[in-house]
Design brief:
Layout (H helix, E strand, L loop, with lengths): L11 E2 L15 H13 L5 E3 L11 H15 L5 E4 L5 H14 L3 E4 L3 E2 L3 E2 L2 H12 L6 E5 L9 H10 L3 E6 L4 H12 L5 E4 L6 H7 L3 E2 L6 H12 L3 H8 L17 H9 L4 E2 L6 E2 L8 H14 L2 H4 L2 H10 L15 H8 L10 H14 L1
Length: 373
């Protein structure tokens, strides 16, 4: 297999490649190749395959090998490819990692050993696990520090592993307070930390870049969008990167009961958001608030995010805890990105059934209010 022409250290946008299936749930290898081509053409600096986002947990060992060989052969060295080789057993993880290296992988990504909701191991066993894997291969190993493992690993422990185990030098951090952990990891690990990466789907990307992140591993659909943030940041144009990171504020017209009753009144509404004409009479009722629109909500969100990084540091885990307190199911957490709040409000505010009061708007406001506290 051809090795990538890109040399270490690896930096930039390395999205996770989805595994492509047909309608019967079998591998669609031609579709897999098209997905890979799209992601490379969209500007990915590299790719990651067989990760959790790739649904690696539904693949047989033979299917894993088939995806591995197909993707690495098709990429043919155009970009570096990271292969996820996570397994609970150290010898199986080591064998998967050796197989990936022989196929041409630039790096492997490995989570600490865990199983189900309760089976975890301590730091001593985690250290031995990674020591076994590291001793089997010569390519870099990325530790995936993710909440799904339920295994807390302190920055001090990760820095120790990086200093003492030769091949472990990349870290994908996707836990609460990612930026703070990245900053501490870099301070403690020094030169042993070759690749401190953002792994929060770019939700906290600006804060993580400020903390020293050099790469981002996101979903597969928008590498060109993430490039618009990372490229100017690396070039020293932080303001441009921040502008690309913020959700857009589209100009829009407020829609009221008197819409269309004259351009002068429309101009009055747009120039004075808190002053809305009442009943088409030309009088201004300053106690009446203009109707909200998605654009208005996005504008308010945009200004709040520009004022502080606090909301950037709120993670999906924190939100789920708050939503659980309110009795909301996890599938409602499509507000994990602050920029999606307006969409969440619209989702909760869909038309009620006959005879049902519109409780959903009030429920959405309650949830959003809790997230702001």
């Amino acid at each position: 297999m051809a090795n990538s022409r890109v040399r270490r250290p690896y930096k930039g946008v390395f999205p996770v490649v989805p595994t492509i299936f047909d309608g019967d749930g079998r591998l669609d290898l031609e579709g897999q190749k098209r997905a890979v081509d799209f992601m490379i053409d969209a500007g990915s600096h590299g790719l990651c395959i067989l990760a959790n986002f790739s649904e690696q947990f539904v693949l047989t060992d033979a299917e894993r090998d088939l995806v591995l060989d197909t993707v690495l052969s098709h990429v043919a060295g155009r970009v570096p490819v990271i292969v996820t080789t996570t397994h609970f057993a150290s010898h199986i993880c080591a064998e998967r990692s050796r197989r990936a290296q022989e196929a041409g992988a630039a790096m492997v990504m490995v989570m600490p050993p865990y199983h189900g909701a309760t089976v975890r191991v301590g730091e001593a066993a985690i250290y031995e696990f990674y020591r076994t894997v590291s001793g089997t291969i010569s390519i870099p190993i990325m530790i995936q520090d993710a909440p799904v493992a339920g295994t807390p690993m302190s920055a001090a422990f990760l820095a120790r592993i990086a200093r003492e185990l030769e091949n472990i030098c990349y870290f994908k951090i996707e836990v609460p307070q990612t930026a703070a952990k990245l900053r501490e990891l870099i301070a403690l690990g020094g030169e042993a930390i070759e690749g401190p990466w953002d792994g929060e789907e770019a939700i906290t990307l600006m804060a993580d870049l400020d903390a020293g992140a050099t790469g981002a591993m996101t979903g597969g659909g928008y590498p060109d969008g993430i490039r618009q943030i990372i490229d100017p940041y690396v070039a020293g144009r932080r303001d441009e990167a921040a502008a690309a990171y913020e959700p857009p504020v589209w100009p829009c017209r407020l829609q009221g009961a008197d819409e269309g009753r004259g351009s002068d009144q429309a101009r009055d509404r747009s120039s004075s958001p808190s002053a809305v004409t009442s009943g088409g009479s030309g009088r201004v009722d300053r106690n009446r608030q203009p109707p909200r629109s998605a654009c208005t909500a996005m504008g308010q969100i945009n200004r709040r995010r520009a004022d502080t990084h606090r909301r950037q540091m709120k993670t999906a885990t924190t939100r789920r805890l708050k939503l659980n307190t309110l009795g909301v199911k996890h599938e409602s957490t499509q507000i994990d990105s602050i920029g999606h709040r307006a969409r969440f409000r619209r989702t909760c505010g869909t038309r009620p059934r006959a005879g049902e009061t519109d409780r959903r708007h009030r429920h959405a406001d309650q949830i959003l209010g809790a997230l702001d506290r």
